[in-house]
Amino acid sequence: MFVVSLAVLVKASDWFTQSAEQIGRGIGISPFIIGVTIVAFGTSLPELISSIMAVKLGASEIVVGNVLGSNITNIFLIFGLTAIFSKNILLKYDLAIVDLPLLLGTTMLLALMIWDGEFSQIESVLCILGLIVYLVYAANAGSKEKTKDHPKTKIGFRPWIMLLISGVIVYLGARFTVDAIIRLSDAFKVGKEVIAGSAVALGTSLPELTVSISAARKGTPEMAIGNILGSNIFNAFGVMGISALFGKLIIPIDMIREALPIMLIATFLFYFITQVKRVTRWEGALLLIFYIYYLSQLFLK
């Protein structure tokens, strides 16, 4: 049930993302802005819906494992593989001015919020406000990027219909995925947050992997980098903040001791690597080594 439901969740999210991307291109939005908004939201949809389901089913420790694990996976695995498959990535968009500081600030704020092992309703509201600030910034940046280089195209009814159908399927896939996590946790005597931070984080990050590698190989690396950046910000602010509205979040001490420091390191590495606007295969290989280390810390305690 875990494998099937997670596969359905990922595939439906892929349909959702493709439909949203078609709509974004039809409106005339630039590739980078599509990456940090539409695609980032679509590829983070599995984390959001599965986290909400986890809270409603009384397994809220899955949420923080999902967020930290997904953000680590996005940078170490997704970004690493993107760099390897794309040879050398050259960026035109200047991330160092606003986007990278936003990511770094978002990560630091999340770390401060969960450091004490609690996540209050006030912190939930602050996360949602932070997400709104980011979306407003991205929207303003998107309006400035609307030029003749990104002309509008005709949008039919099919993308809108697929958006709706895939959204419903994502919900159902998330519901059964969380139920399977709870059963697996009981069967193997492993913390739900460990499964969420590894298997679920990997599974729900597959859309980011597909989108990022495809975008980079097609000559639009800005979309790949923007997707990872936007997805991590949405996970930290959106998934944590929105999930907490449905009930109290349990923050396992193991996640604070092991996953949180690794997420901070991952974010700093992403910051320093991308600010020079060039990413090499060797840097991608180094990130993959970090990902293997992260998995070893989860399972080989």
CATH architecture field: Up-down Bundle
- Specify the overall morphology: globular
Strand neighbour order, sheet with most strands? 1-2
Biggest sheet, open or closed, and with what strands and sense? 2 strands, antiparallel
Q: Quaternary status of these chains?
A: single chain
Structure description:
The protein has eleven helices and two strands. It has a single domain (2-144, 157-299), classed as A middle domain of Talin 1. The mean pLDDT is 81. The protein is globular and about 50 Å long. The protein starts with a helix and ends with a helix. It has a two-stranded antiparallel sheet with strand order 1-2. The protein has helices at residues 2-27, 31-56, 61-85, 99-114, 121-145, 158-188, 192-204, 206-217, 221-244, 253-274, 281-299; strands spanning 89-90, 278-279. By secondary structure, it is mainly alpha-helical. The longest helix is centred in the middle third of the chain and has 31 residues, at 158-188. Helix 3 (61-85) packs parallel to helix 10 (253-274).
Summarize the structure.
The chain is mostly helical and 301 residues long. The protein is 79% helix and 1% strand. Helix 4 (99-114) packs antiparallel against helix 10.
Keywords:
single chain; 301 residues; mainly alpha; A middle domain of Talin 1; two-stranded antiparallel sheet; 11 helices; 1% strand; globular
